Structure formats: structure tokens, C-alpha cells
Amino acid sequence: MVQKKITSMLVSKVNEVYIKVDVEPYIQKELSDFFTFEVPGAKFMPSVRNRYWDGKIRLFSPANGQIYTGLLPYLKEFCKRNDLEIVIEKGIENEKELDDKIVKKFIQSLKPKSKGKLLEVRDYQIDAVHNAISNNRALLLSPTASGKSLIIYSLVRYYQMMGLKTLILVPTTSLVEQMYSDFLDYGWKDKFIQRVYQGHDKDVNKDVIISTWQSLYKLPKKYFDDFGCVIGDEAHLFKAKSLTSILTKLHDCKYRFGLTGTLDGTQTHRLVLEGLFGNLKKVVKTKELMDSNTLADLTIKCLLLKHDNLDCKQVYDMKYQEEIDFLVSNHERNRFIANLTVGTKGNTLCLFQLVEKHGFKLHDLIKERIYGNRKLFFIYGGVSTDIREDVRKITENENDAIIVASYGTFSTGINIQNLHNVIFASPSKSRVRVLQSIGRGLRKGSNKEKVTLYDLADDLTYRDKKNFTLRHFLERVTIYNEEEFEYTIKKIGLPK
Asked: Is 94 a member of any domain?
């Protein structure tokens, strides 16, 4: 009887970023295929069209046998599928167990406050912190307004207690200021925190550095040697090369945590982020927070604008960008958006995509129609961080202001508790953008229990051919169904 040969895989530690896999060459090839993925939408990218790139991302390198440390669970899965024995070098996996009662006691000992009042720490926040600390790394998926900043603060304080220096990376200067303000609001002292972006000193000896990645990614590896913990907020953006370059420079940084409200739903995106940070942990769902009265009630009103036959015929043979240009320059559509915005009651956020082509037009049309003392703000990339923060603070004390803002500046990370309405003025199918934008309005305020989303869509169907943005709207409806959001669809003939 011939005994079946068992082949083993040896996994050793390179540093805190990479592990090395030693296996037979033929298994290396199988492993490479296992960790190779088509990038969604790659076929539309110029680099693929011009054959500079095949549109695939490879997470395992047969040349050096290295792979992100955070992908170890997937290596185990590969071995199980292929009947391989896996031998893991000591020190790669976390071997300690941490009692969740200890974590709860620690967080409560911080006595975090908000506006001077003691905060009630929620069970799922304790669970998220416990999971992160127990595993040394984690990718925490927690929706907007679920209290991610308190989770981050708790992790920062824990590793400060251990004598470690922490780097917090955020996408915008607004978020640097916001997180800094949150930490002070919780009751921490300014002397422990350094903000880093243009005009702020990078070389400081403080316990916590809060920075935009744009401010740091060109710095040499030596700058990152002192950090024992790194936290990436809005982690769904970390697939960008400038961000992965920072995380790979943190060779000796053992504790790694990413937090985000949503992922784009693709396996590629998830695996890259898990590789950089650690296993995905779903902290809580938006619907659960609504049901528990933690978040504001959400009403989604989908307004399906039916264009006349002449417009439909004109759009019939258009490419995607041509259709977008047609819609944002459509006076009747822009007038409808302006009337809708001015007709709302409460603080309203009107989100657009193209600044020059659309944003300025909407702002001017709304300005023409606004009445009384109602305040109007216009926010886009060219507006300074200080002004954006001022607008956010002003809006907290207003009950009937209008903010016309680009998705890039206000769909991610800006917290306005007192927001009553959100208007999607520009069509999008991005899961991340849709959910992040909805999240802008989900925070409860002293004068607010509910928020209304107006999702504008355009029906330019001609000869049974659905236009691009109508198909994108149907994808947004799919997202609403997946998230168990209630919505209505109202068909409106676009007036001339």
C-alpha cells in the first residue's frame, strides 16, 4: 500500500508587514493563482486598454515567497483545501487571550465624555476593541455614526498605557481636526496629541500623531520606526498605492487596525485591506442601530425623473461621460434640484460630483431662490479646511441651513449631527459613496430624530434601452434592499 505523501508549508516571519511562505515550486504556482484577482472595472482603465497591465492584482509573490501577514487565515484555508500541513513560526499569531470584562473595565475607566456628559459605551464598541486587542490587528467594519472615533480613542489609550506611540491616518485635513476635537471632547489632553498636515511640524515626540496620508507618504522609512501602533480611519481608501506604501514602511509596527463604514463589496478590495490590517470584523449593522434608536430614522425618497422623448433620443447613443455631461448641464433638471433643495425644511446637504460643470450652477440657482435669513454654504476641494470646519460647527447650531457640497469633501468622514435632509444630485453606483453619503445624516441630534434622503434618478429610456444612470439607480436600489432600508420610488415627469 502506497502511503499518501503529505507536503508541508512553512510560514516564517519577515517583519510586521510580510510573512514568507516556503513550499514546493508547483505549490507556489497554485498559491499564486489562489491569490490573483481581476480588478473590477479594470477593462475600462487606460493602462489595461493600452496593454500596460493585465488588470489583475497579485497578493502573493512567487519570486520572494512573501505575502501580507494579515492573509494568514487564507493561507490556512488554502492548505486545508489542498491537504497540506501548515507549520507557522512562533510569534506570528497572537497567543494571548484577553477577557472582555477587562476591556470593558478599561474603557469605562477612561470616563469618555461628549459635550461634558459621560458617554454610555455600547456593547458592540467594547466587543470591537476586545477583538482588535486580542488579535493585535483587525479590519473593523462599523457604519457611520456607530461611534468609530470612540473605538479609535480606546485603542489609542490602551497602547499608550503600554508605552507605545500611535500613528492615526485619515484622508482629509478636516478629519484630522475632527478627530483631534473628538479626543479633547472625550477628556484627553492636548499635550499627548500632534496634528500633522501642511503647516504643522512632523517631527514631534508626542504619544499620538494624527495625520493625512498625503503629508507622510513621501517621508523615509526611518520616520515610521518609532510607531508601535497604526490606525487607518476610512480604511476602504487604503487600496491606493500611496497608502499601502506607508503601511509597508511600518515594518516594526506590530499593532494594526483599520476602521471603515463600508467596503465596495469586491473580494479584491477586502483581501488587500485584510492583508494590511487583519481579519474583517463586522461590528454592527446600520439597521440594528436604527432599530435600537441609536441612529436617526431614515426615509429614502427615490425621485425618478422621466425626460421627454427628444432628450431620450439624444442620449440614446451617448457614452457614459457624455450622458453625465448632458445631465449636469440640463437646465430643467438643475432647476428641479434647486427647487427641491429650497423646498426642504431643516438643514439640507445637496451633494454633487463635478464642481465646475455642476456645483457652481446648483449653488447659483439655489441662491436665486433662497429666501429670508436661510444660510447657504458652498463647499468643494478649493475651500480651506478651516472654513469647512467652521461650516460644520455653524450647521450644528442651525435648523434650516443649506450646504451645497462635493462628494469628495462631505460624503466621507464629516460629522454633522443636526442634518435633516440629504440630496443625491449626481448619479453614482459606488456602494462606498452611497452608504458613506447616507451616513452623513444618520446621527441623532437634540432637535432631530429622522433624516430624509432624496435620491434623484433619470429615466432616459429609448427603444427599450436603459440609459447608464438609470442602471446605476437600479444598483443603488439593490444596495438599499441589501441594507434593509425602506424606500419609495416616485416617477416625475421633468417639467420644461
From this structure: no
d(CA 117, CA 81): 53
List of E strands, 213-328 = 227-233, 255-260, 280-282, 297-306
Domain count along the chain: 3
pLDDT tens digits for range 165-179 = 999 999 888 889 889
Question: HSE on the CB side for 331, CA within 13 Å?
Answer: 1
On whether residue 398 sits in a domain, the answer given is yes
Compute CA 379 distance to the chain's CA centroid, rounded to the nearest angstrom.
20
Q: Which domain holds residue 420?
A: 289-493
Q: What are phi and psi of 302, to 5 degrees?
A: -85, 120
C-beta atoms surrounding 186 within 10 Å: 18
| Buried/exposed 373-408: b ≥16 CB within 10 Å, e otherwise | eeeebbbbeebebeebbebbeebbebeebbbbbbbb
* Least confident piece of the model among 51-65, 153-167, 339-353, 361-375: 51-65
Q: Is residue 228 part of a domain?
A: yes
128 Cβ contact partners less than 8 Å away, ≥ 6 residues apart? 138, 140, 142, 151, 281, 283
DSSP secondary structure letter of residue 23: -
**Where residue 15 sits, what CATH number does that domain have?**
3.30.780.20
- Report yes or no on 65 lying in a domain: yes
Helix (H) and strand (E) counts in the chain: 18, 23
Q: Which of 52-61, 92-101, 363-372 has the highest mean pLDDT?
A: 363-372
- Give strand pairing partners of 167: 209, 230
- Compute the distance between CA of residue 238 and CA of residue 258 in angstroms, rounded to an integer: 9
3-state secondary structure of 158: helix
235 and 334 both lie in a single domain:
no
